[in-house]
Design brief:
The structure is a single chain. The chain is mainly α. The protein has one domain (about 25-125): Tetratricopeptide repeat domain (Serine Threonine Protein Phosphatase 5, Tetratricopeptide repeat, Alpha Horseshoe), CATH 1.25.40.10. Helix content is about 80%, strand content about 0%. It has 6 helices and no strands. The protein has helices at about 1-40, 45-60, 65-75, 80-95, 100-110, 115-125. Helix 1 (about 1-40) packs parallel to helix 3 and helix 5 (about 100-110) packs antiparallel against helix 6. The mean pLDDT is about 85.
Length: about 130
């Protein structure tokens, strides 16, 4: 009976820890969304440092490649387009079904490699073809 209670407490502690990790990851992504997509104007050095810290935290807490997408957008906003394209190329290589990564690659590569941009756009359309109206 005591062993069952100990196991139940241990399970509750693990579940609580998992929820804390998920909450921190969600907060990091929410702040990254603001920095990457909603913040107006140039990224200040303070915002860049904050973004880098959030990316480190998000990578530690998030097992997928979503932090790479934020990194690419932030690099692009800083004028480091070639680096953003390299991050996105690695992302689509690792996750070939990632529609968001393909769409971001198409947008980013348009400035530096129009053929890559066209290929990425075609792949994005193949993953999510336009829906006809009606």
């Amino acid at each position: 009976m005591i062993a069952a209670r100990v196991a139940l407490v241990a399970l509750a502690v693990v579940a609580g820890g998992w929820l804390v990790v998920q909450e921190r990851g969600a907060r990091a992504e929410a702040e990254l969304t603001v920095l990457a997509f909603q913040a107006r104007g140039e990224l200040t050095p303070a915002r860049v440092r904050r973004g880098e810290a959030l990316l480190r935290a998000d990578r530690r807490l998030d097992p997928d490649r979503r932090p790479d997408l934020y990194e690419a957008v932030l690099l692009g906003r800083r004028g480091r387009t070639a680096e953003a394209v390299a991050v996105l190329r690695d992302t689509v290589r690792a996750e070939p079904e990632n529609l968001e990564a393909w769409a971001l690659l198409a947008r980013s590569a348009a400035q530096v490699d129009p053929r890559l941009a066209a290929a990425a756009r075609a792949r994005a359309w193949a993953l999510a073809p336009p829906v006809p109206p009606g």
